């Protein structure tokens, strides 16, 4: 018998076939929209990922409220992925809806600051520990700007990243050095010898030290836990070791809290006292409105002040964009920080995350499977191995498309929108205990279907 992570492959394929067929049959309106859309957009979508990240036909969304959204065929889904942790505040968080409504009626952007920017920078400083802030329109761009700043501060070109990371589809971190030279991870990125990132395994301080020794790394950039390859937690002392080694070898430390900002108040940067030189953020911070942000030390802020880019020529720092830090994204972020991502809300999400992980572990046990659940705050990872992953290589063994795709289609047919393949389910600020329990019932049903 051929098996997939302990599951009969034939049985899994049959479940998948039945669920795929049902998925298509029950969504005729999305199918018709996709046919029409293909005439005006590649793959019928306005952004390639909307087709590329699913192995089933794309459906069209109509409306969302709280942790649920509906599609064009009237199906209602409990969303356990929240647009890859971009909509963790829910689809219609009342404080954000109100702030955005008010702001857009009075002007969304001025190429001038509004008072909301002071409030947002102050609140972020209190949470993430860094005193000066800048804003962009995405986390990817926040990371690009953070790395440019580190280059200017250190006079070096390369970043150092950990295997299994994702910091956006950016040349700074998605082009890496190999023994054969620089190599891009996706098509279209310019491969540059000398500035390609160096990649080392997570949780391996020895490898990190060897990679820092040549003295050409401007910046070590990492998430506090890897969240784009399931979930990999740092071992005790690892992140403090990263900081110490980076500084000893003249590099800065940037912590990318784009996802993990939702997993602890102030992110693990605060919870674990990480003291980085730069923190980057995005996604949920805008409550659905585009935003990216990065916080820096006073020394880096001073560097920025000395090299401001003006419009009369000269060589300032290459940072900024016309709509960056616009009044609308500042108003939305203020509403998120003051009204949604409150300390009490984080406590609640943490309890939901514990319930989710415990429920998954219990279901796995009941089915006699050698799997685990891993967790950080509300975010949980399905680990399809007996031991939790220590690094990207371990974690990759749990990214099993046949199994994960079968699970997501099975769940979609039962009103649960499951995570994209490299994510895991997450309890959000909009979920309730009963939502978590609904998810767990469907997990149980799925394991019954594939493992009996
Ligand atoms: C850790 C991390 N950083 C940065 C990004 C880039 O975010 P965006 O695509 O919103 O720019 C992502 C996206 O998944 C991410 O997970």
Largest sheet: 7 strands, mixed
Shape: globular
Helix content: 40-55%
Major sheet strand order: 6-14-13-12-11-7-10
Task: Work out the number of β strands.
Answer: 17
Distance from N terminus to C terminus (CA atoms, Å) equals 16 Å
Number of helices: 17
Ligand types: pyridoxal-5'-phosphate
Give the uncertain stretches in residue-range form. none
What gyration radius follows from the Cα positions, in whole Å? Answer: 22 Å
SS-based structural class? alpha/beta
Strand content is 15-25%
Summary keywords:
7-stranded mixed sheet, 4-stranded mixed sheet, 452 residues, alpha/beta
Give a quick summary of the entry:
The chain has 17 helices and 17 strands. It is α/β, with parallel strands linked by helices.
Topology:
Layout: E1 3-4, E2 7-8, H1 9-25, H2 28-37, H3 49-52, E3 61-65, E4 68-71, E5 76-79, H4 82-85, H5 94-104, H6 115-128, E6 132-136, H7 139-154, E7 158-162, H8 171-174, E8 175-178, E9 181-184, E10 198-200, H9 205-212, E11 217-222, H10 238-248, E12 252-256, H11 267-271, E13 278-281, E14 292-296, H12 298-306, H13 327-340, H14 343-366, E15 372-376, E16 379-383, H15 392-396, H16 401-412, E17 416-417, H17 433-451
Parallel strand pairs: 5-17, 7-10, 7-11, 11-12, 12-13
Antiparallel strand pairs: 1-2, 3-4, 4-5, 6-14, 8-9, 13-14, 15-16
Helix pairs in contact: 1-16, 5-13, 6-13, 9-10, 14-17
């Amino acid at each position: 018998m051929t098996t997939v992570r302990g599951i009969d492959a034939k049985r899994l394929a049959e479940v998948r076939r039945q669920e795929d067929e049902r998925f298509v049959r029950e969504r005729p309106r999305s199918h018709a929209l996709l046919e029409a859309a293909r005439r005006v957009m590649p793959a019928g979508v306005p952004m390639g990922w909307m087709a590329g990240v699913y192995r089933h036909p794309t459906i069209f969304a109509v409306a969302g409220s709280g942790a649920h959204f509906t599609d064009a065929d009237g199906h209602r889904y409990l969303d356990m992925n929240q647009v890859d942790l971009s909509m963790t505040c829910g689809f219609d968080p009342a404080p954000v809806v109100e702030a955005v409504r008010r702001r857009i009626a009075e002007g969304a952007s001025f190429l001038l600051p509004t008072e909301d920017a002071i409030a947002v920078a102050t609140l972020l400083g209190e949470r993430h520990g860094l005193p000066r802030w800048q804003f962009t329109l995405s986390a990817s761009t926040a990371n690009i700007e953070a790395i440019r700043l580190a280059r200017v501060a250190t006079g070096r070109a390369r970043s150092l990243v950990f295997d299994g990371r994702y910091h956006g589809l950016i040349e700074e971190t998605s082009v890496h050095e190999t023994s054969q030279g620089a190599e891009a991870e996706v098509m279209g990125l310019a491969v540059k010898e000398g500035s390609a990132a160096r990649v080392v395994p997570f949780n391996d301080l020895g490898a990190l030290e060897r990679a820092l020794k040549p003295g050409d790394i401007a910046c070590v950039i990492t998430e506090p836990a890897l969240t784009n390859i399931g979930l990999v937690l740092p071992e005790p002392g690892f992140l403090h070791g990263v900081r110490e080694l980076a500084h000893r070898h003249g590099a800065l430390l940037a912590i990318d809290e784009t996802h993990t900002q939702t997993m602890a108040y102030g992110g693990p940067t605060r919870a674990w006292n990480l003291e980085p030189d730069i923190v980057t953020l995005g996604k949920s911070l805008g409550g659905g409105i585009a935003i990216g942000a990065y916080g820096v030390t006073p020394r880096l802020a001073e560097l920025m002040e000395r090299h401001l880019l003006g419009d009369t020529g000269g060589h300032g720092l290459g940072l900024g964009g016309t709509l960056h830090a616009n009044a609308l994204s500042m108003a939305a972020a203020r509403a998120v920080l003051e009204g949604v991502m409150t300390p009490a809300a984080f406590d609640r999400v943490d309890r939901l995350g514990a319930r989710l992980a415990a429920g998954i572990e219990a279901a796995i046990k009941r089915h006699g499977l050698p799997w685990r659940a891993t967790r950080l705050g509300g975010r949980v990872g399905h680990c399809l191995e007996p031991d939790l992953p220590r690094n990207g290589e371990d974690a990759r063994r749990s990214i099993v498309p046949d199994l994960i795709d079968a699970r997501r289609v099975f769940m979609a047919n039962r009103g649960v929108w499951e995570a994209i393949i490299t994510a895991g389910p997450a309890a959000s600020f909009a979920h309730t205990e009963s939502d978590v329990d609904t998810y767990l019932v469907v997990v149980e049903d799925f394991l019954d279907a594939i493992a009996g």
